[in-house]
Specification:
seven-stranded antiparallel sheet, 25% strand, 3 helices, alpha+beta
């Protein structure tokens, strides 16, 4: 059985939505955490139980702002090529919007799958290392962001089984 796979991996949209929701929730949580609403308390209002003070409110607001600003960073698409013998080649597109067939806009190198990789049924966290010892992580999720997810999962499990035998 051949495990040759070549696919383009983009950042999962649902993770970006989750990041946006968490950022907004952290910003909205800053006011109740500050305890500023104590002066506005009346009958039936819980006072002081969840207030952490201004330090907690500032940290929550800064964390939420960071999460929302991080959404502006462009995620570069990755092309992962697995040869029939199990060699991994990772290509990162340097120019935003470069066509997958455009080889001049990529930087690629041979990689090996590290033991810390996570191979779940609907999510793959691939820890890769090149010959110079530089490590990188590739996140592949089932769905539109990774159309050949099933083939990638089978190929990664085959590579992991081969490395365990050696």
């Amino acid at each position: 059985m051949s495990i040759a796979v070549s696919l383009l991996i983009r950042a999962p949209i649902c993770l970006r939505w989750l990041q946006a929701v968490l950022g907004v929730a952290a910003l909205l949580a800053a006011w109740p955490l500050s305890g500023a609403w104590r002066s506005a308390s009346g009958p039936g209002v819980l006072v002081g139980a969840y207030a952490l003070g201004w330090a907690g409110a500032v940290l929550s607001a800064l964390g939420g702002g960071f999460l929302l600003l991080a959404l502006r960073w462009r995620r570069k698409p990755h092309r992962l090529d697995i040869s029939p013998v199990g060699q991994l080649r990772l290509a990162v597109y340097l120019e935003h919007g470069a066509a997958p067939a455009d080889a001049c806009g990529t930087a690629s190198s041979l990689r090996r799958l590290l033991p810390g990789s996570t191979l779940w049924p609907s999510l793959l966290v691939l820890c890769l290392e090149d010959g110079a010892g530089r490590r990188s992580a590739v996140l592949a999720q089932r769905g539109r962001a990774c159309p050949a997810f099933r083939q990638l999962a089978v190929a990664c499990r085959a590579i992991a089984a081969r490395e365990r035998e050696e």
